[in-house]
Design a protein that fits this description.
15 strands; 2 domains; D-Maltodextrin-Binding Protein, domain 2; single chain; 5-stranded mixed β-sheet; alpha/beta; 6-stranded mixed β-sheet; 17 helices
Length: about 375
């Protein structure tokens, strides 16, 4: 059963970043009933687009028309199901998990043996399997990350930046009592709290990203008890707040993205914060999906050529500069070296790939943009926030 549009969760970064072009603006000038031509039209999250697509054109002989969205799954589902944007786009680049909601009716199964898809054989199963529904491959993996928390090492007495730290520093530590910042975004913070509750044995939880009524209540009860104990100093919504809380020293630890730590250090003019090696991570990813309407459009070869480019070194190298990683990261490093990138840039790519491989070895959970029990989770999360 397909969840209602109201039941689609807000993306982990979309609502926090905000400010991306709206769907209606993105659709401006794009015609319905596309014919096969030399342009590739992608509706995708803004962070996964490139500033310069000239390399894409050189590699594929195709122009790129990339329409950015903030990635809100509710908007994506509405645009695909209600507004039929598959008539206007050749590919969707959105959250892993969309195949569970839209796959059978709205996405074309991926032909992994297509001759244009030469990089597919190099993709690790860990990237492939999450994009299957009932054994059918609906998407090609794009980039993602594994988020933990930022902290001020001087305040916590941490001298080794690679020391593995526990989420007790966020949820249940006397050392950080009254010095913690927590995001108010449900699908970001609630699963992190639920994983902590499960790992500590405070409650049995089957799926921390899709809590049952009993599980959601148990997690909210734990959160309320920690809130009453004074664990949390600040609750925040946006990226700028993450940066400000860290750089100002108002908090010593908060769940955030790695780039918030970098921005806080830049704002402070010196390295005052680190990003944690943690005992588990908020893993997330994006993927490319082919609209069903594209099957008879006459440009399927061009679509697969485009997917192959996104699995190649040039694209992945540019994503790695942003701290985002995906499959085939060895190709990213090879491309950067062959293209004459600086030693610092090559090192950034290799470091990002190494960190990602280390973080993604933790089992635990991966972001679910479409939890079936979202209404229950919303109710309990609000009870926690209002306590």
């Amino acid at each position: 059963m397909t969840p209602s549009l109201r039941m689609i969760a807000v993306t982990r970064r979309g609502v926090l970043r905000g400010g991306a072009a709206s769907v209606l603006l993105a659709l401006g000038g794009v015609r319905n009933g596309l014919a096969a031509d030399a342009a590739m039209r992608i509706y995708g999250t803004s962070a996964q687009g490139l500033e310069d697509w000239s390399g894409f054109k050189k590699a594929t002989a195709l122009d790129m028309q990339y329409s950015p969205t903030n990635g809100d799954p509710g908007v994506v589902v509405r645009e695909i199901m209600t507004n039929g944007i598959g008539e206007s786009y050749d590919l969707f680049l959105t959250e892993v998990g969309m195949q569970k909601v839209l796959g059978k009716e709205w996405f074309q199964p991926l032909d992994t043996s297509h001759p244009e898809l030469t990089n597919w054989s190099r993709v690790a199963p860990s990237f492939i399997e999450p994009l299957k529904v009932d054994g059918v491959q609906y998407g090609s993996p794009n980039v993602g990350g594994a988020d933990s928390f930022g902290y001020r090492p001087e305040a916590l007495g941490v001298t080794d930046p690679k020391a593995k730290l526990g989420w007790d520093l966020v949820f249940e530590s006397e050392k950080t009592l009254g010095r913690v910042g927590l995001s108010t975004t449900l699908v970001y913070s609630f699963p992190l709290m639920a994983q902590y509750v499960a790992n500590k044995g405070y409650a049995k939880i089957a799926d921390v990203t899709n809590l049952s009524p009993e599980e959601a209540k148990a997690v909210a009860d734990f959160g309320i008890s920690r809130k009453k104990a004074g664990q949390f100093r600040s609750f925040f919504v946006g990226f700028d707040e993450q940066v400000q809380l860290l750089s100002s020293g108002e908090v010593d630890v908060l769940n955030c993205w790695s780039d918030a730590v970098g921005a806080a250090n830049e704002q402070a003019g010196k390295p005052i914060a680190q990003y944690a090696y943690a005992d588990y991570y908020f893993k997330w990813g994006n993927a490319l999906f082919i609209p069903k309407q594209a099957a008879d459009r006459g440009n399927i070869d061009a679509i697969y050529r485009t997917i192959n480019y996104f699995l190649g070194g040039e694209y992945l190298a540019q994503m790695a500069r942003k701290g985002l990683v995906g499959p085939n990261m060895d190709l990213a490093s090879d491309y950067a070296k062959a293209a004459g990138w600086s030693a610092d840039d090559v090192a950034k790519i290799e470091t990002a790939a190494q960190l990602a491989s280390e973080k993604f070895t933790t089992e635990q959970f991966t972001f679910n943009p479409v939890p079936a029990n979202l209404s229950v989770m919303e109710e309990e999360w609000q009870r926690f926030l209002n306590a």
